[in-house]
Automatic annotation (TrEMBL):
Residues 167-320 form the FMN-dependent dehydrogenase domain. FMN binds at residues 62-64, 92, 121, 183, 213, 277-278. HAMAP family: Idi_2 (MF_00354). SUPFAM superfamilies: FMN-linked oxidoreductases (SSF51395). It comes from Desulforamulus ruminis (strain ATCC 23193 / DSM 2154 / NCIMB 8452 / DL). One of its GO terms (cellular component) is cytoplasm. Its cofactor is NADPH; FMN; Mg(2+). This is Isopentenyl-diphosphate delta-isomerase. It is an enzyme of class 5 (isomerase). The keyword GTP-binding does not apply. GO terms for molecular function: FMN binding; isopentenyl-diphosphate delta-isomerase activity; magnesium ion binding; NADPH binding; oxidoreductase activity.
Length: 351
């Protein structure tokens, strides 16, 4: 059942029409710099993540694996990550724990990308032994622990008991030899959740906001239901919530991000890395491996261009760029007691 579900997820994700989902990034406007005092060759989009250099602060986020038919997809994603110098995470490896034939669909990732940043993936309720096996399976640099309560509740066969998850995450953080990245799967994290994770020893958090792939809707479709709840915290808002309590850690922004301007907006607000999934899968399915590599190269080039227009020589400089927050995002932040004005009053990069 789990193996068949993996194939269904790919099909339903590609069919889902969420291109206009509300992420909150349209509420963010970056202040243009007419005098950037930079030339093209001085701008550096590179960063370091888990001790390895990336050409761009991008993560091909968890999508798939766990079925023999998905082996080629994971290989192509990993190869594109290697050729463009970005990080990659595999989908949940639970199926590979239960079915040996599914392991190959994950193992090919490290073969395709021997030196890059690769993240393993399991549910946050996994055991220490399972976590170590997932990391070993693909020679991972870190382990994503995914949180997906709404998705589980929408599944007829899903979990119903989430008690003790935070304690389990804390135990894993203390016992594992690789960094943990706790990740939502499209419903966003509040500042309260981020604070709890940080207090439990988690420095890397992927807020996985609403506005992109809706796994609750996917599971409802599988069950023949259609509630259209649009549940979750939009990505930009969730990122700002997290930054209000975890500004010194590593926050990853993902959820409905599909172009360079939203990537730069997220980085300007303060995230360390931007995760993308469905847009990359769609390019791969429509335009082949070469098309995906070209898409990622264009994405990095456009980020480079926007950084120059803002006067940001390196990624860290983006955190000095003034950003004006309006609309629903401003209203949310105001009611939650988060200062939106400080972003608009930044001094800007000084070269």
């Amino acid at each position: 059942m789990r193996l068949d579900r993996k194939l269904e997820h790919i099909r339903l994700s590609l069919e889902q029409n969420k291109s206009n989902g509300y992420t909150g990034f349209n509420d963010i406007m970056l202040v243009h710099n007419s005098l950037p005092q930079l030339n093209w060759n001085e701008v550096d989009t590179g960063c370091t993540f888990l001790g390895k250099k990336l050409r761009g602060p991008l993560l091909i986020n968890a999508m798939t694996g766990g079925h023999p038919q998905l082996e080629n997809i994971n290989f192509s994603l990993a190869r594109a990550a290697a050729l463009t110098g970005v990080a990659m995470a595999v989908g949940s490896q639970r199926a590979a724990m239960e079915t040996p034939a599914a392991r190959r669909s994950f193992e090919v990732v490290r073969e395709a990308n021997p030196d890059g940043v690769i993240l393993a993936n399991l549910g946050a309720d996994c055991t220490v032994d399972e976590a170590r096996e997932a990391v070993k399976m693909i020679g991972a640099d870190g382990l994503q622990l995914h949180l997906n309560v709404p998705q589980e509740l929408a599944m007829a066969e899903g979990d119903r008991n989430f008690k003790g998850i935070l304690r389990n995450i804390e135990g894993l953080a203390q016992q594992l030899e690789v960094p943990l990245i706790v990740k939502e799967v499209g419903f966003g994290m509040s500042r309260e959740s981020v604070a709890c994770l940080h207090a439990s020893g988690i420095d890397y958090i992927d807020i996985g906001g609403a506005g992109g792939t809706d796994f609750m809707a996917i599971e409802e479709t599988r069950c023949g239901k259609k509630l259209n709840w649009d549940w979750g915290i939009p990505t930009a808002i969730s990122l700002l919530e997290g930054l209000s309590v975890h500004s010194k850690g590593c926050l990853i922004a993902s959820g409905g991000i599909d172009h360079a301007l939203d990537c730069i907006k997220a980085l300007t607000l303060g995230c360390s890395l931007v995760g993308m999934a469905r847009p990359l899968l769609r390019v791969l399915m429509d335009a082949s491996d070469k098309g995906l590599v070209g898409y990622l190269e264009d994405l990095i080039q456009n980020m480079h261009r926007i950084m120059l227009m803002l006067g940001a020589q390196k990624i860290e400089d983006l955190k000095k760029v003034p950003a004006v927050i309006s609309g629903k995002s401003y209203h949310w932040l105001t009611l939650r007691g988060i200062d939106a004005h400080a972003y608009a009053r930044r001094p800007g990069p000084c070269i």
